[in-house]
Design goal:
With about 280 residues, the protein is an alpha+beta fold. The chain has a single domain, classed as Endonuclease/exonuclease/phosphatase (Deoxyribonuclease I, Chain A, 4-Layer Sandwich), CATH 3.60.10.10. Helices cover about 20% and strands about 35% of the residues. A 6-stranded mixed β-sheet has the order 3-4-2-1-14-11. Strand 1, helix 1 and strand 2 form a beta-alpha-beta unit. The two termini are about 20 Å apart. This is Endonuclease/exonuclease/phosphatase domain-containing protein.
Length: about 280
């Protein structure tokens, strides 16, 4: 085990709706291994990183578990669908590179959802630039996807934000955190989506772009005929008065990626670098 000063974070909705679920999933894993992390051999380590996947089909879980590169270098949570709400047909999977110390991991099942949505919470240890050990919380989620699900999305994001702000003084809650990350498919379909993020004290890791389309992650590769949008986000939170967690160099991945003529996903993924300043 080691305590990294920085790590790579990837979030990607890999689309459970389309056909060829296992083939597309395997193609996505190969792309992550060889193109994103430049690990040409299964023995090549990606270094400290977290891969957050959404919409993983139940029958695709075996493909992740049996992938040799994943088996060698990652801890997977959960390992099957029994932890998903109602053992649902698809859900979130978090992969933590094995050199990273994991304090805790569990699943939050949203109380307000019509789509069996949930979040995976993993607490890891990182080292700040000043040499202090920090407990950082990584939350992988997919918020409600219905066009009229704005209130559900707001409530779900609020529950995640609360998990980043819990303190020792609150009963029956996890210990105080040094901050953390919420990443995944936020289904940011609402006109006030950015304002909702700010209202919970969260910071969008993508800086304002001159061309908003540069941040779009959905609407280009199949899927329903809706407007192009930045549905996927990496959000971070640092306790008041602190400047600890920072996400930098965020960019899109998986653009134009196909398997045998089929889109691997209707979403682009996101990749960024997480660091702890103090």
């Amino acid at each position: 085990m080691s305590t990294p000063k920085s790590l790579i974070i990837v979030t990607w909705n890999i689309d459970y709706h389309e056909h060829y679920v296992t083939q597309r999933l395997n193609a996505a894993l190969e792309y992550l291994q060889k193109d994103v992390f430049e690990c040409l051999k299964d023995s090549d380590s990606p270094g400290p990183c977290c891969i957050l996947l959404q919409e993983v089909q139940t029958r695709a879980l075996r493909e992740i578990r049996s992938n040799e590169w994943i088996r060698r270098h990652f801890i997977m949570t959960p390992i099957d669908n029994t932890k998903w709400p109602h053992s649902f047909e698809n859900g979130n999977i978090t992969l933590i590179e094995k050199s990273i110390l994991i304090h805790d991991a569990y699943i939050l099942k949203y109380g307000m959802t019509d789509m069996a949505r949930s979040a995976i919470i993993v607490d890891i240890r990182m080292l700040s630039r000043l040499g202090s050990q920090r407990r950082i919380r990584i939350i992988n989620t997919q918020l409600e996807g219905n066009l009229d699900g704005g209130e559900f999305r707001r409530q779900q994001l609020m529950e995640c934000a609360k998990l980043l702000k819990r303190t020792k003084s609150q009963q029956n809650l996890a210990p105080a955190q040094s901050g953390g990350i919420i990443a995944g498919d936020m289904n940011a379909l609402d006109a006030d989506a950015d304002e909702v993020v700010r209202s919970f004290g969260l910071v969008d890791a993508v800086v304002p772009l001159k061309d908003e389309s540069e941040g779009h992650t959905w609407g280009y590769q199949g899927g329903m005929h809706c407007r192009k949008a930045r549905l996927d986000k990496i959000l971070n939170y640092t306790p008041d008065g602190k400047k600890r967690v920072r996400v930098s160099d965020v960019r899109r991945i998986g653009i134009g990626l196909r398997w045998n003529g089929h889109w691997i996903s209707d979403h682009f993924g996101l990749i960024g670098t997480v660091g702890v300043l103090a």
